[in-house]
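Dear colleague,

Thank you for sharing your sequence with our group. We've completed the structure prediction you requested, and as agreed, I am returning the results in plain text so they can be pasted directly into your records. Please verify that the sequence below matches your submission; if there's any discrepancy, let me know and we will rerun it promptly.
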Amino acid sequence: MTPQSSSSRRRPLRTRHAAAAGLAVLTAALTACSGGSGSSGAEAAEKPKISVNLSGQQAKAGGPVTVKLADGRLKEVTVADDKGAKLPGRISANGTTWTSQRTVAPGTAYRVEASTDKGGSAKSSFRTAAPDQVNKVTLAPGKGTTVGIAQPLSITFDHPVRNKAEVEKALKVTTSNGTTGSWGWIKNYDGKDRVDWRPKEYWKSGTKVKLDARLNGIDSGGDDWFVRDYATNFTVGKSQVVKVDLDSKTATLKRDGKTVRSMPMSAGTPGGEKASWGGTSVLMSKEGTINMRSETVGLSGSNSYNKMVDDSMRLTWSGMYAHAAPWNASYFGNTNHSSGCIGMSDGDAGWLYGQAQPGDPFEVTGSGSKGVPDPGNGYGEWNLSWSDWQTKSALK
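Please find the predicted structure tokens below.
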């Protein structure tokens, strides 16, 4: 009875010491190697003492979980959230410490289970403090889609990202053929923070791409947290480019480097805001028949319009499209006389609409453009050199 009584008197002291150190202490009995009345003292001596760096209902998020064993070696440690998702982690070489490789998310309950090489086991739990604000993302392209050779991976954030380097470290891109690429931080057209992964050169047709955005538990800055992971995947489709020549007033679809069809067109009127963007834009979406109104692109007075437009293919956020423009038929092939879009006949626009895929580049050359679109105005990053694009990474 004496060893048991002595052990009882010592437990409260250990608990007070652990609380003072900010640790949760776990104690569990080892399974006895043999029976008999003389085994209780040995069992008490071999009870493992395991500590966890997080405890209570308001634990701090954003850091790893650390589990330490005072004596002996850890055999296995599991830390899982209330949805059953486990944090990956590793046991140190000396067997005394397990550290998670992911950080804990805010507003989440976790359960810790640990076992030792001598058969002991222990359990604990804690909950992290709720976040002040949650940051969410919009991914492009969508999961399981097929896209053109100029489509970047694009992540737009609901709230500003101040910890750009930490966020970028959590983004993993895998390609089926080892494509070289880089993340770049830009401002989306609406002013939101955005980060895109652009290949050094156009994708090769058939490339399979996967993104794992392991953001859960990362503070984007100013106590603005991510509380989940994100993922998307896509396949690169046909290798095709639309060449738009402002001088010859033609649009030509090339596939695998060969001309498929060349079509007369009329682009934006040179010399002002009605001019078309030059450089490279990327087909963002095929929107079909839409209502186009001049006020949405800052035109008014004699330049105003309000039309239902067929076979509309969006190239920039600022309102540049390729589309059917039968009202402009007299200018096709001879004069650039639109409000900035690339207009074609009903037949040619319908044909191109059927052939084009989101992610196809539209390469606009010739005189009379108003320059190139900013990287965040659609997918304008292709107007930057590879070295200039790389400087936009937070890790370079």
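Summary note from our side: Residues 2-127 form a domain with the Immunoglobulin-like fold (CATH 2.60.40.3780).

Kind regards,
the structure core
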